[in-house]
Amino acid sequence: MAHDTDSTPLSGDDTARDSGMSRRQMLVAAGAVAGAGLVPPAAAAAPASSSGRIVGVAPQGGTAAEFRARFAQTGETGEHFVGYGYLTAAQGTTDADLFASAAQNDTTALLTAYAVGELVRRTVDQSVHALDIEGTLTIYQRTAPGASFADPASFREGTPVAQFDITLQDIVTVFTAGRGLPTLNGDMRQTAADQLNGGPGRMFGHPGLRARLFATGIGTLVDPVRLNSVLEMAGQWTT
To answer: FRET pair for 77, CA 20 to 30 Å: which of 54, 170, 187, 201?
Structure first.
């Protein structure tokens, strides 16, 4: 979810600037807002391994979901992250669950994703940068298409059907001034789940589910002073 293409090292003290609320408090608050309407762990349905009513969960080590996404890195020192995109595949779903037409893109997507995160640590060594990020990821089901990469907030519309705490490492290889190849790896822990289509039927995952996320793509530095960047990526998570 992050991208640094400037080669100037940044100390840990620079990433710890906060005004009032701590980063962890900010993440908790953001997660609470994003997860409104989701079933909390205590009330969620138990996993049904043989009933076929759980989607977004693969056999151990298998691919549970695939996605396309854009990311924005903002803040005075590039410490804030927002990711938004859509699912291109998910275990137990059909194309009709994922897209409103045969064209499969952001404007036809029915299962969208929105993530927020904060920088925890940054390490720079010449052309390879490593960033540790913590945040939350929410999956939304839309009743009609209409999301657009031109409007990040549009990926938050619909009913939240799954939410995850995420811990990511972003390794960026800078190959030229202002351009880099980011690779995301990280852990996901599902904290809430709800049913697709707003009624009895298939649950998207289940609270307590653990997954591994991987994504790669390309990033462009838009502010070399504040280390702000934009990224285009695709990836998957496995359960």
So the answer is: 187
Instruction: Give pLDDT tens digits for 142-195.
Output: 999 999 999 999 999 999 999 999 999 999 999 999 999 999 999 999 999 999
Place of tokens 């990469």: 149
Pull the structure tokens for residue 229. Answer: 């960047």
Q: Give the global pTM.
A: 0.81
**Which tokens sit at 232?**
């285009």
For 16, 191, 204, the CA distances from 111, given in Å and listed in that order, are 34, 18, 11
- Sorted by where each begins, the domain ranges of the chain are 20-41+53-238
Find the length of the chain: 239
Q: Collect all residues with Cβ–Cβ distance below 8 Å to 140 and sequence separation of at least 6.
A: 111, 112, 113, 114, 155, 156, 157, 158, 159, 160, 161
Alpha-carbon span 166 to 201, nearest angstrom: 26
The tokens of 47 are what?
């996993």
What's the pLDDT tens digit per position in 86-132?
A: 999 999 999 999 999 999 999 999 999 999 999 999 999 899 999 99
Q: Say if residue 38 is exposed, middle or buried (CB neighbours under 10 Å; 0-12, 13-18, 19+).
A: buried
